[in-house]
Amino acid sequence: MSLIVAAFGGGVDDIVVGDLLAMAQARASQGAVGGPVVRAYSWLQRRGQFPPDAPATLSNFMSRSGQVTPAILVDRYGVHCKAVRDLLVDYLTERQAGLDYTSLKSLAGNLVGLFWTDLERHHPGIDSLRLSQEESDGWKARLAVKTVRQRQPDGSMAEITTPRISAPSVKMNVRAFYLDIAEWALEEPEKWGVWAVPSPISERECSSKKLEKEQKSRSDQRTRERLPLLPQLVRVADRRLKETRARLDAVDSTPLGGTVEVLGEAFTLPKTSMRTDGLSGHVRDAQGNRRHLRTEEKSAFFAWATIEILRHTGIRIEELMELSHHSIIRYTLPSTGETIPLLQIAPSKTEKERLLLITPELADVLSALITRIRQPDGKIPSIPTYDMYENVWNPPMPVLYQWSVSGEHRAMAPNFVRRALNETLNDSGILRNDGSPLQFQPHDFRRMFITDAILGGLPPHIAQVIAGHDSLSTTMGYAAIYPADTIEAHRAFIARRRQVRPAEEYRAVTPEEWEEFLGHFERRKLALGSCGRAYGTDCIHEHACVRCPVLIVSPDERPRLVEIRDNLYDRIAEAEREGWLGEIAGLSVSLAAAEEKISQLDARQERKSSPVFLGIPDLGHIVARASQAEEP
């Protein structure tokens, strides 16, 4: 503050918000950390020196611009055609009233970033929404894939082309853009009529059913893979918290400049400390590496708290970050007068407020959080939080996920929670089936909570209310449960079928029965091939195998079958000469059956010799092909 007074004049009472912002910008341009400026702002704010509409905190204030207008959203992408730029601004302005800010930014990214600027990049000078077939097909082909840079195992960066999962939603936004303009042109032709042209995207191209099924399959597999490992992750998080606290307690009880050994590790404390409490901010381990044990303990604690809260409630990550002391409420049952603790979840994604029952395990975690952030006077600091989705500052609340940085109480960022969770996963050593590390995302706990609740007998419609979903289908989409009803019904069918069968069939096979079974297959061998009759049945044609439809003729017996056919011709001719009309009828049936079987053999051999034959070739087949290829 002395620098501000010296630079701008006046006294401490004359310092305004702009003075501190100017100093923060000057320090940032020099690469300096804004800790003193932040502490000065916090002190003056508590002193009541700033007006009521002043920012509640100075941390990251300059980098958080808040919500911007549709014109700024469009101009971020650098549209060249001014007429189309103005059209996009007017369209987003028209849609702004019915959308939240996150949806508005997403719509601007799809229409301007992925649609129009892509067309301008590949078709310079384009100024009309009426696309040719070539322009439309080219854009759809480019939209279907995206190129990302990934680090390879050797450390190099490579460009990888992957399918764009969001392509159907982008096409849906573009189609809605064309259809909205066509509809508005009927009401305001002077404004929208000139842009009303046919949509280059059909309704069929916006279908995402296949992608939704694939996403459901991947999510279910992800949940089934992680749910059995959740108890192991919980044990690791609890162990890490106890170990980090043991190290920190041992270091805090050691004088500066001393050495302490704990959990098999030796730490050397610095000789001086900048902390007001005289405790060490960092130590050196046996290898000389600098260790921040307070940061390690803080990361382990909030990782443990996050895992416990998410697995007991199934709330979203943004709902977790907005939990406050006011979220814990009491409800008295009117029938018994019993007091039940409830956790109030503020409106989030679906703008619905809901209440969750606080279990004893969840109560322990919430109590540990409150104890950690409670001030010596017993109060929990009320701090403003920044909504990363809506780009607005929320009013000050006693949030549970907060810490003190440079004397200023700040809300934690979701990225810190994710990093703390990843550190716990790395220490757990949990691997996938292929040996790669298994990653958990905060949303995985939500899916596991819903799956475990439904498998535990909770009715799906109750799980829907607890999860805060708009429809039951969304809840069932989260539940990665096996089709238990189908499996149980099939097992019951098999059990009933076994009950109706004779009980004597379920016994050990006697040697006589086994010999009879093997003899059946031995007796199926015939002169022309084999008999295909079922086990336990007798021959019904009295050895008239040529007429039998279940005769399986061997290709090697074709000459014998041709000989039988020729003999039948001779016998029919003899019967005609002698006038044996009864013999003629019977021999004619046999002749027709023989010719049919010969034609079947020829057709089978022709299929094998054709190029599309996919069977396993034998040596003779290969030799025959080779000999044919060698012929001139």
Q: If you had to describe this structure to a student in words, what would you say it looks like?
A:
This protein has 632 residues and is an alpha+beta fold. It has helices at residues 2-8, 17-29, 35-46, 70-75, 82-96, 101-122, 133-143, 167-187, 189-192, 209-226, 230-252, 293-313, 317-321, 360-373, 414-428, 442-455, 460-467, 472-478, 484-500, 511-522, 558-578, 581-609, 619-630; strands at 145-151, 157-163, 259-262, 265-268, 283-285, 290-291, 328-332, 339-345, 354-357, 383-387, 392-397, 402-405, 408-411, 529-531, 551-553. The protein has 4 domains: 2-46, no CATH class; 70-207, no CATH class; 229-478, Intergrase catalytic core (hpI Integrase, Chain A), CATH 1.10.443.10; 511-625, no CATH class. The chain has 23 helices and 15 strands. The strands form 6 sheets. A 4-stranded antiparallel β-sheet has the order 3-4-5-6, with helices on one face. It has a 3-stranded antiparallel β-sheet with strand order 7-8-9, with no helix packed on it. It has a two-stranded antiparallel sheet with strand order 1-2. A hairpin with an 8-residue loop joins β8 (339-345) and β9 (354-357). The longest helix is centred in the last third of the chain and has 29 residues, at 581-609. It is elongated.
